[in-house]
Amino acid sequence: MSEVQSVDRAAQILQLLSAESPLSVSEISRRLQVHRSTASRLMATLETHDLVEQEGQRGAYRLGFGLLRLASAVTARVDLSRDAQACCDAAAASLNETVNVAILDAGYAVTITQTVGQRMVGVARQYVGQRAPLHATSTGKVLLACSPAAEQEQVLAAPLEAFTASTITSPKVLAAELAAVRARGWASAVAEWEEGINALAVPVRGPQGVVVAAFSTTAPAFRLPESAFAEHVQMLREAAGQLESRLGYLPGPRESGG
């Protein structure tokens, strides 16, 4: 039995147990149309990972509590998206600019929520669901700077694509930029992903103090010049703080002042 086939059958077992539980190994083998020994091996593997459990001494199986751990991770992301949208709406109303929240996913910064400002000239691009490069965006730099060293090294070792003339393509320069982001607590992208567009981002921490997202604002460079960065960063920090409160993060005494 191939690995792919095993995964497919394991998924079928979980689906069967979600619809009807408990089920015996014999019943599972019959429904999957596989030999009983094959079904038994699959159940034993799923049981090892707490994805299924035997019901008493009957030998019948039901879904295990290991699935709750997996489901809680999904629920956390759903909660993050919902709470982030509310905070994005409030921040966009204050800044009157496009505001985004992004997470780190498979080596990219992926925007999960966005609220567009009401300016006549603004950023009309829809970023939600889009994968953005870590080295050329403000959210990407925040997420990368706060990620494990191994992940940073992986990005620094790979070719850094140039999207504009301002994109950082030198690993040495990017490493220094990430160190600066960690030191000051925010990141910028000055026409690095899109010509004429600047962006700022600050980290968002979850209950355990780990950075789970980046809160950013994006605007035309003439309306978000480098001279205005400090003012916008302060507003972003306030918005990110509201989101962190929703997520259950309590800053320590040294962090509460921003």
Biggest sheet features = 6 strands, antiparallel
Rounded average pLDDT: 85
How far is the first residue's CA from the last residue's CA?
56 Å
Shape: elongated
Roughly how many Å is the radius of gyration?
Answer: 23 Å
Major beta sheet, strand line-up? 5-4-3-8-7-6
Helix residue percentage: 40-55%
Q: Give the amount of beta strand, in percent.
A: 15-25%
- Poorly predicted runs of 5 or more residues: none
Q: How many helices in DSSP terms?
A: 8
State the total count of DSSP E strands. Answer: 8
The class by helix and strand makeup works out as alpha+beta
N-to-C series of helices and strands:
HHHEEHEEEHHHEEEH
List the helices and strands and how they pair.
Blueprint: H1 3-19, H2 25-32, H3 36-48, E1 52-54, E2 61-63, H4 66-95, E3 98-105, E4 108-115, E5 131-132, H5 138-145, H6 149-157, H7 171-184, E6 187-190, E7 197-205, E8 211-220, H8 229-247
Antiparallel strand pairs: 1-2, 3-4, 3-8, 4-5, 6-7, 7-8
Helix pairs in contact: 2-3, 4-8, 5-7
What does this protein look like?
- There is one protein chain.
- The protein is α+β, with helices and mostly antiparallel strands and 258 residues long.
- 46% of the residues lie in helices and 18% in strands.
- The strands form two sheets. The chain has a six-stranded antiparallel beta sheet with strand order 5-4-3-8-7-6.
- A hairpin with a 2-residue loop joins strand 3 and strand 4.
- Helix 4 runs antiparallel to helix 8 and helix 5 crosses helix 7 (171-184).
- It is elongated, with a radius of gyration of 23 Å.
